[in-house]
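Hello,

Our lab assistant flagged a job as stuck in the queue for most of the afternoon. It eventually completed. Since we weren't sure the result was trustworthy after the delay, we are filing this so someone can double-check. Below is the sequence as submitted and the structure that was eventually returned. Let us know if re-running is recommended.
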Amino acid sequence: MSFQQQQQQQALSTSQIARFSEIFDAYADTEATPQGPPCMTPTAFVQAVTPSAETAVATKNSPYAVFFNIADREGRGLLTKDDFIEFQALLSQQDAASRLPFRAVSLSANTDTIQTGALARLVSDDAAARNYLKGKSHISYAEFAQLIASARANRIRNAFSAVDVQGSGCINPDKLCAIVREFAPIDPASTVAQRISLLRQSAESPAVGYPTFLALVSLLSNPINIYRAVDEIVHRQSPKAPVSVDKLEISQSEFAGATSLLTPLEISVLFTLAAGQAATEATTLGSINAVLDACYTCLAPVATEKGPVEKVAAHQGQQKPSRGAMRETLFQAYNFAIGAVAGGIGAAVVYPIDLVKTRMQNQRAAVVGEMMYKNSLDCFRKVIRNEGVLGLYRGLGPQLVGVAPEKAIKLTVNDFMRARLTSKDTGNIAFANELIAGASAGASQVIFTNPLEIVKIRLQIQGEILKDAAGAITPIARHGAVTIVKELGLVGLYKGASACLLRDVPFSAIYFSCYSHLKKDVFREGERQLGVVDLLLAGAIAGMPAAYLTTPADVIKTRLQVVAKEGETAYNGLFDAARKIYKEEGFKAFFKGGPARILRSSPQFGTTLMCYELIHRMLPFPGEGHNPTSDRSSQKTHELSSQTALFHAGSALRLLHDANYKFGTMRPPQAPSSPSSPSS
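-- returned structure --
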């Protein structure tokens, strides 16, 4: 590879070079160079670069055949892979649409001027341009590019006037598609072409006006402008948005706010073509993407028997960039930290409710005189009266210390498992896999949850014990969290762990599945970005069934973890506790504190998940702040841009051809041995 080729290819990314290498391999002919590497013949080159919308043009008459001489820098009559990739690098330049025809005319990469030749014929309708060219033998590249643009604009106007024989400034939609095809990539059989009739001025006037015609040509001639606007809109979405954003509804004003490259009339034309309805004010990104797909299909080269080029592009577009081991570790640590912060906020908000719930669950109906609280509200009032407002936050310190890793690991594991269980083909996750992901999250948190719960519960019950012992001869000292941990020891910290698992595994399975479906099915995530209230409600509502249905396990866990007072029933394990509670207090005892548990878990998880999602939006992981689930990749952006440039370059050559400009002919291939010589 030459130094100049290396410089050219630096404009392409590694993935782009790999993509163009696959295209080359699909069209290269091994028989052309039996003693050397595969090469591309002139005919294969034209097939590889000609947009599918123009495949009806014979190869020898195709304007794209002229570009072979540009790609064939060594004049061998055959292209190596480096030659083809270098040509694609030329297409990535901003001015490729005018630079390529200039190179084709000059047949030299080292000149900034060309002979005027038949250019005077090209601007025959422009008096000022004709006067400028008089007496000039050469013009610069910049002047050439401007004259080509002017000639194209004149040709567009003349094409419309040729059909508008009555001089009304309007033409029939049936004739519009044929004119537009000359200046923009459009398939007459496509849905976009069939919807052109919707652009008529009104129901009474079936004709399409000249301004609308110009907007249509400009819009379809530069589909990359549409793409950039769509990409900007997708960038503004949440990094935690669903896989597909095609259902996201966008208005014309919102779309206009995302781009300055399209005029209001061009946006109106786009929305009409996308929605299939005249004068529509809003449509979905999916329907706009369909217009882009129609343009992309017309611009993409046709498939060969060796391998469909479109299939290669589609496959690469679906692949998600993978993180390395170190980056994946950092990403999970990032999720863990956000989960810890969100969990702490959620726990602090609802801690008073949690204390009331614990007091209610520990109240024994079988012990005479133990009915201290009539209900949750009565418990709330008595705690404030006997222990003060701060009594509602008894045990909050250990809760915050423990809840950070607890909620963090739960949220991190759920996200991790959902990502692994999501189908790579459809981007969807089966309901059974959602349950598995949630259950895994619940099981993983018990290592933190159980020690936290037993210390918290004993601190919360301490107020009752101190009140009962107020008249005792020997007063009972208030214990702190550290003292309780020392008394319990490592084994004691996991007392009631089986009940904790019985509660947390089904809770998380129910909760995360409900939360996901509420966002998607009720709050229409994917069609719009969910706000603070949406996220809070989704999290709170999902917490209701999860909290109440797992209350029996929570009651058993509480009884196992609280030190039984004199005269109270002692429990020896999970099943013993369940049997004795049912025998002594009946089935209703298993749902003691159920309403308080809902009041605590529902807002807590609503607040936690809301904070978790919002922090992800405000502080995205470096390099992944943009929604990674867009259906389009940067590779497709480059291909759409370069193929559009190639299409316009071909149009410019047609203009020159119609002006009888004499191009050089394609060089015949040399002997097969030439391409095998070193090129680097």
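-- support follow-up --
The delay was a queue issue, not a problem with the job. The result is valid. The longest strand covers residues 113-115. The chain is about 60% helix and 0% strand.
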